[in-house]
Amino acid sequence: MNYHDILARIQEEVLPLSNKGKVADYIPQLAKVDPSKFGMYLHLLNGQSYAVGDWEERFSIQSISKVLMLCMAVSKLGEKVYERVNVEPSGDPFNSLVQLEYERGIPRNPFINAGALVITDMLIDAFNDPKQSFLDFTRAVSGHLDVQCNPAVAESERRCGFKNSAIVNLMKSFGNIKNEVDRVLDLYYDFCSVDMNCQQLAQAFCLIANHGRGIVNDQKYLSESQFKRITAIMMTCGFYDEAGEFAFKVGLPGKSGVGGGIIAILPNEFSLAVWSPGLNEKGNSLVGMKALEIFTTQTACSIF
Ligand code: GLN
Q: Is 94 strand, coil or helix?
């Protein structure tokens, strides 16, 4: 397969669409990003890699960090994680409060904000210095020791995170948040603020493509069953109320973030990161989704 040509053709085809999406502006710091950026990085588990566009430029991974948070929580705490968070698609926007009240403070899944905030609460109890442990974990699995949180992005979200405050407070009222509300929010914003480029993201997510075993240090972080479950949640819940559309058009387990990044994996084969900051109305990268759709159509590489 000539991945080099395929990526080049994808870039050519999607670039005219880059003004169609809208950069997230509810976090003021993210609104400053140039919407014409586009990068893609494919890392095959056989060690080969292919890249196109702005793949070296770092961006805010935002909700993509929710998968890394879940991996950390599950590898430390095991399956009891799923006692406080469900595993059903929400069919609602990532920051919705509606279901949470009906369902008595138990989030639909770990990849909407409510779910990730509960996971953050668990990580506070499970690690002495959860922010440092998260960075250590992300650096270890990606093989990039310079991965950092972005304090300006975290602070920007902290100042405008009214919805997230409401979500944590509602869950606290149902007894599903154990720590101080502000402590949970602060740490969640730090996790979301991590900057990575397409290469770092693709290499980090080889952890999932490789059944929970890090490709850099060969460490087994997730059991087979834990790997299977996390991949299933990516497939069914990785794109909020567009998870069905992503499965339909792309056919890979993945996760998006409002920074415009998307990670998609094919178990045993590859990890593929794409970045384009303009979002569609569901909060997923418009060009990123299109690029992945073209990739799986042209290569016939999907889980189906
Ligand atoms: N930090 C963002 C928030 O909480 C993450 C949302 C996202 O990437 N979808 O709103």
A: coil
* Structure tokens belonging to residue 173: 């009222």
**CATH number of domain containing 181:** 3.40.710.10
| Cα R_g (the chain), whole angstroms | 18
CA separation for the pair 159, 220 (Å, rounded):
38
Closest ligand 1 atom to 26 CA: 10
Pocket test for ligand 1, best of 153, 192, 195 (most atoms within 8 A of CB): 192
Kindly report the pTM of this predicted structure.
0.97
Ligand 1 atom closest to residue 283's alpha carbon, by position in its atom list: 9
pLDDT of residue 21: 96
Under the banding of pLDDT at 50, 70 and 90, the label for residue 20 is: very high
Q: What is the predicted pLDDT for the residue at 96? A: 87
Q: Which domain holds residue 278?
A: 3-299
Total structural domains within the chain: 1
237 CA → ligand 1 middle, Å? 14
Task: Name the residue of 23, 201, 258 whose CB sits within 8 Å of the most ligand 1 atoms, as the mutation to test its pocket.
Answer: 258
Instruction: Judge whether residue 92 has pLDDT over 90.
Output: no
Three-state DSSP class for residue 194 = coil
CA of 95 to the centre of ligand 1 (A): 8
Question: Which atom of ligand 1 lies closest to the CA of 192?
Answer: 1
* pLDDT of the residue at 95: 87
Banded pLDDT at 35 (limits 50, 70, 90): very high
Sign, Cα dihedral of 301, 206, 240, 108: positive
Residue 95 lies in a domain: yes
